[in-house]
Design a protein that fits this description.
The complex is a heterodimer of chains A (273) and B (240). Chain A is mainly α and 273 residues long. Chain A has helices at 9-34, 40-58, 62-84, 88-109, 117-122, 130-149, 151-159, 161-166, 171-193, 198-210, 216-241, 245-265. In chain B, α2 runs parallel beside α4. Classes of the chains: A mainly alpha (273), B alpha/beta (240). The complex binds adenosine-5'-triphosphate and magnesium ion.
Chain lengths: 273, 240
């Protein structure tokens, strides 16, 4: 049975898209976690609910309106946050609830729930089409290239905004770029784990990797490896036992996190206790 | 003598306090300027304006003859060591990563080893920044500030909470950078003795500038030193 599942091409698509999303979420998520913005992914995911509802009502492809609404509202929220000095966690709360509120009102106005709410909440990776897979791979490629090109600026402004500014890094533009990339990443990843578990992929592999006490690049690579491992095992195991992939993927990630903590408490990872 | 910094009638008003009041002074190439002043005197405020972090000021600040409001190019020639470098304690960046952040041209990576050697931190290069002691961290931030060969080094009171041995090492490094590499240094401090030993120019700041000139002229004038100490004492009592 374990071998049989590879012969299904939907499984190929699921694994390939899953790996791309795993890489994307772990890299973009690392910057968010280090900026104390861990729940930002969650907020964007919730605001995409408004976007999807809008798309359905307007008769547009819901994924496109989800991209539009999530990214625009995340950028606006960032602007408001900077302009009025609102704290990060409060701005996340505002974004998160307004997305759901808008979605609910639109759905109410258009006469009830027409969208497949279950796959939206928990993902539907086994249903990704060839086109979805191509889209996911292209977006992953583009975002990774942007991150590699702007690596120093992204890292520096995450480490310390003020010093980055003094070194001539256009910190504000970089901040918007991170928000923009997070928006794309989240909406793309909804297909894998759904709205409710999105921040797990952003956060858990990264906090796990940070515990290994390595430098930035190594931490990013460790995080990606954990993320890919969780996603691939989650998809395979959930298929075998016929359960939802999202929950299984996240449980794998939490398993690695728990093992890392155990290793660390046993003193096998030296230095910073 | 080449004027590298010209500050003219600088006034900085925060909502509650006027932190800098009509301050003017110049710094020449190769100067080692110690800016002394009690807590709340406006030293960090002055630096923030000089570095373009705060643009809400009256008056003009020029670097290399150009108004800092007109062009940010001067920042390329400046290394800055902040008073308290704030970062996440478990930020996954090694010493090497941090110094590399300051590097404008990726091609100059060989500079990093050189600078780590100079500051006696080459053995720490793969350690995480958050795992180091305060004195070691400070040297890492100086390394980051120096890695682009700046013409001017600006240091904001960088020795608080660091043991005497590390402070001495740090001072000898500053002295060497100034005398051997001819880097202009602008350095704020509470430590009068250190300023007396190291700096060749002194600026006494306490909202207004009440002395600016050669450090000999300041330290040989007992009245001035006494006046400064009293002002600091008052400020000190005020705070407690
Ligand atoms: N961002 C700010 N907003 C409002 N007031 C400020 C701000 N920063 C500093 N101040 C005020 O401006 C004055 C000067 O502060 P500043 O930090 O420049 O002093 P300092 O000389 O660097 O002191 P210290 O030796 O303690 O570092 C103080 O009265 C301070 O309360
Ligand atoms: Mg200060």
């Amino acid at each position: 049975m374990t071998f049989e599942i590879f012969t299904f091409s939907f499984m190929h698509r699921a694994i390939i898209s899953g790996i791309a999303i795993a890489i994307l979420c772990s890299v973009v998520g690392l910057f968010l976690v280090l900026r104390r913005y861990s729940l930002f992914g969650d907020a964007i995911a919730h605001s995409s609910f408004g976007g999807i509802a809008l798309g359905l009502m307007a008769g547009l492809y819901p994924l496109w309106t989800a991209y539009g609404v999530s990214i625009v509202s995340a950028l606006i929220m960032t602007r408001i946050k900077d302009r009025f000095n609102i704290s990060g966690d409060a701005s996340i709360a505002v974004l998160l609830s307004s997305g759901i509120a808008v979605g609910l009102v639109i759905i109410g106005l258009s006469g009830g729930f027409t969208l497949d709410i279950f796959s939206f909440l928990f993902g539907s990776i086994l249903l990704v089409s060839v086109n979805d897979t191509i889209l996911i791979l292209s977006l992953t490629g583009i975002i990774l290239i942007v991150i590699l090109l702007l690596y120093r600026q992204l890292l520096y402004s995450t480490f310390n905004e003020e010093q980055a500014k003094v070194s001539g890094v256009p910190v504000e533009k970089i901040n918007y770029l991170i928000v923009f990339m997070a928006g794309i990443t989240v909406v793309t990843s909804i297909q894998l784990v759904g709205v409710l578990l999105i921040s797990a992929l952003f956060v858990i592999p990264n906090v796990t990797a940070i515990m290994y006490g390595k430098g930035f690049k190594q931490t990013a690579i460790i995080s990606m490896s954990f993320s890919i491992f969780s996603v691939v095992s989650g998809i395979l195991i959930s298929y075998i036992f016929d359960i939802t992939p999202a929950g299984t993927i996240v449980l794998f990630a939490i398993g690695i996190f728990a093992c890392t903590m155990a290793i660390k408490s046993a003193g096998l990872l030296s230095r910073n206790n | 003598m080449l004027r590298v910094v010209e500050i003219d009638h600088l006034t900085i008003q925060y909502p509650d306090v006027k932190a800098i009041d009509d301050v003017s002074f110049t710094v020449n190439r190769g100067d080692f300027l110690g800016i002394i002043g009690p807590n709340g005197a406006g030293k960090s405020t002055l630096f923030a304006a000089m570095l373009g972090l705060n643009t809400k000021y009256k008056g003009t600040i020029k670097f290399f003859g150009t108004d800092t409001r007109k062009s940010k190019n001067y920042l390329k020639e400046i290394g800055y060591v902040p008073q308290k470098p704030i970062f996440e304690k478990n930020f996954p960046a090694t010493v090497n990563d941090v110094v590399k952040m300051g590097l404008q041209k990726e091609s100059d990576v060989s500079k990093i080893d050189e600078i780590l050697q100079l500051l006696w931190i080459h053995e720490l290069s793969e350690r995480r920044i958050g795992d180091l002691s305060g004195g070691q961290q400070q040297r890492v931030f100086i390394a980051k500030a120096l890695v682009n060969n700046p013409k001017i080094l600006i240091l904001d009171e960088p020795v608080t909470g660091i043991d005497q041995q590390s402070i001495d090492l740090f001072y000898s490094i500053l002295k060497e950078l100034n005398s051997k590499k001819n880097i202009t240094i602008i350095w704020s401090s509470h430590d009068l003795d250190a300023v007396n030993k190291l700096a060749n120019h002194v600026a006494c700041l306490n909202r207004t500038l009440f002395f600016h000139g050669e450090s000999n002229d300041f330290f040989s004038n007992d009245d001035l030193v006494k006046q400064y100490s009293e002002a600091s004492m008052q400020e000190h009592m005020h705070h407690h």
